[in-house]
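Narrative of activities, Objective 1.

The group set out to show that a structural description can be obtained from nothing but a protein's sequence at a throughput compatible with the screening campaign. Below is one input-output pair from the validation batch, recorded exactly as produced.
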Amino acid sequence: MKFTKMHGAGNDYIYLDARDMEEDWADLSRTMSDRHFGIGSDGLILIMNSDTADLRMRMFNADGSEGEMCGNGIRCFAKYAIDHGIVPTTTTSLQIDTLAGLRTVTPTYKNKLVDGAQVTMGVPRLDPADIPVSLDPAIAGSRGPILKYAIHPGDFRLFLTFVSMGNPHAVTFIDQPVSEFPLHNIGPLVERHPMFPQRVNFEIVNVVDDTHLIARVWERGSGETMACGTGACAIAVAGKLLGLTENDVDITLPGGTLKISWDGETEVLMEGPAEEVFTGEWTK
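Output recorded for this entry:
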């Protein structure tokens, strides 16, 4: 089974051309993603045929759970499809079918290979039922957005803003440097908080200024990741809703910087790199 390891801003995935394959993908993702006994990755991404788009993307987290969408992963998906000749190398845009809906990817090129892309990430969903998040009875039927909702994981008091980018996110802006925040302790408590029936991706954010944010992400099913494309989009949306940022913002994550644009009403746009790391053959 031939595979390709790729990453977008350090958010790394194993890619398989699965157009003519059937496997236990959840189990394979757990096995291949293991950083000690496998290849090592944040998960597995499959290139598949689609009846409604150019191609279909499925993504599985490192724990085997299937995710709806991956912003860094879809840029690398487009690079794989173009660089490996699945679609024409002259492709200027690619329609990709995901569990979060159709996404349009516009690749950028360097030396005739894809080096990054801009992605239409969809209109953010802000109603609690769409996240989904179960709120206390006093606001249970509320429409979104829900801003700065207080929870108390461990010894911390956090104020969360909820955003769905096709997958659920909870964003908090903090004064403490994100590098000092105990994300490995608090992240699992937020991810699996009973208010999130499908668990949640959790982002902690520092504001540098109204066009630059610094963040770390605890990704549902994978733990802390070097970057998260949908997470960066959720951060930009939350920042705009809270009056902290402009429409265009650079979000610096441990693995690199993503450029996010949102006008407050229409689709979120994300731009970032896509890199191939190595190829190999899985024989287990």
